[in-house]
């Protein structure tokens, strides 16, 4: 049975991405990559309560243990203080590569910020990579030969890492060691096409299912832990970008989207770029936070 979606925020952002739930404050954060902004949506009042603008495109971000955000801003990873609006650069990634920028990123159960890059050219070449940024700012290269690094998520027990490349359309899974932040035993989890929904952002629910925004097909795909497709849910817009479980009980699911460079598509789907909501009948997982583990 397909899920029923409603429009939560009629924002029509150029490239809505990275919805992130902060249970401590009841806030849903999300980015508009091309708008160079991060927005804060108050869940209780259903209103946008704050926005912050950065100097360059915001690829992704995550929550920190000290209340700040860790933000991927083009080729820099910064710690951003929302109260003061100040940023502290802790790492630079691929600053010497003019055709890449930081893209999808997420804090892992190891307390590190995992973030990948993407090739900005068309056609895209396999020049991008995935990195792990530790709390001390040290950067470790995880894997390369990527076109658009995407889809980061972890299983409920933290023992499996999911990662995708939107270009060729695969999703891979890795064995993951929370104590060391090491990923190993990489294998193919799923292969998607333009028609079945090449993978953009992803998330995992409490039962271990992996949810993937099928950005090429207007679909939200759901995979069981064994990689079998259990649901392909049509979205109200053709370019969904990332799902996120949120709300006080983590039973709400919000999906961001982008506005295509296509006049006919925008006429047919004027709410493209907005955020959409559903309740899929499963709970999500709380967001991990950047910083040393206790």
Structural class: mainly beta
Radius of gyration: 17 Å
What does the main sheet amount to? 5 strands, mixed
Low-confidence stretches: none
Instruction: Output the strand order for the largest sheet.
Output: 9-8-7-6-25
Strand percentage, roughly? over 45%
Along the chain, the helix and strand elements come as EEEEEEEEEEEEEEEEEEEEEEEHEE
Compute the average pLDDT: 98
Total count of helical runs of at least 4 residues: 1
Q: Which term fits the overall shape?
A: globular
CA(first)-CA(last) distance: 42 Å
Family: Belongs to the SMP-30/CGR1 family.
Protein name: SMP-30/gluconolactonase/LRE family protein
Pfam families: SGL
Domain SMP-30/Gluconolactonase/LRE-like region: 15-258
Short description:
Helix content is 2%, strand content 53%. It contains one helix and 25 strands.
Question: If you had to describe this structure to a student in words, what would you say it looks like?
Answer:
With 294 residues, the chain is mainly β. The chain has one helix and 25 strands. Strand 7 and strand 8 form a beta hairpin. The longest helix is centred in the C-terminal third of the chain and has 6 residues, at 263-268. The protein is globular and about 45 Å long. It starts with 5 loop residues before the first strand and ends with a strand. The model has no long low-confidence stretch (mean pLDDT 98). Residues 15-258 form the SMP-30/Gluconolactonase/LRE-like region domain.
């Amino acid at each position: 049975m397909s899920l029923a979606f409603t429009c939560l925020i009629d924002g029509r952002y150029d490239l809505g991405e990275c919805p992130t739930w902060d249970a401590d404050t009841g806030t849903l954060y999300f980015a508009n990559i091309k708008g160079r902004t991060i927005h804060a949506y108050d869940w209780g009042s259903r209103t946008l309560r704050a926005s912050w603008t950065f100097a360059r495109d915001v690829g992704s971000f995550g929550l920190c243990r000290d209340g700040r955000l860790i933000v991927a801003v083009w080729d820099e990873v910064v710690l951003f203080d929302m109260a003061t609006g100040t940023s502290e650069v802790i790492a630079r990634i691929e600053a010497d590569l003019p055709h890449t920028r930081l893209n999808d990123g997420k804090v892992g159960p190891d307390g590190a910020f995992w973030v990948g890059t993407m090739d900005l050219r068309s056609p895209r070449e396999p020049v991008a990579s995935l990195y792990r940024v530790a709390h001390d700012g040290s950067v470790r290269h995880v894997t390369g030969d990527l076109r658009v690094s995407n889809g980061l998520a972890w299983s409920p027990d933290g023992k499996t890492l999911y990662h995708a490349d939107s270009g060729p359309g695969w999703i891979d899974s890795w064995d993951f060691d929370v104590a060391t932040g090491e990923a190993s035993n990489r294998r193919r989890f799923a292969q998607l096409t333009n028609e079945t929904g090449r993978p953009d952002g992803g998330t995992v629910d409490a039962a271990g299912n992996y949810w993937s925004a099928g950005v090429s097909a207007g679909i939200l795909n759901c995979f069981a832990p064994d990689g079998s497709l259990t649901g392909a849910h049509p979205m109200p817009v053709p370019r969904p970008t990332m799902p996120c479980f949120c709300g006080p009980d983590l039973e709400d699911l919000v999906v961001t989207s982008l506005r295509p460079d296509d006049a006919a598509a925008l006429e047919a789907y004027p709410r493209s770029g907005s955020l959409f909501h559903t309740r899929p009948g499963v709970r999500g997982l709380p967001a991990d936070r950047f910083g040393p583990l206790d």
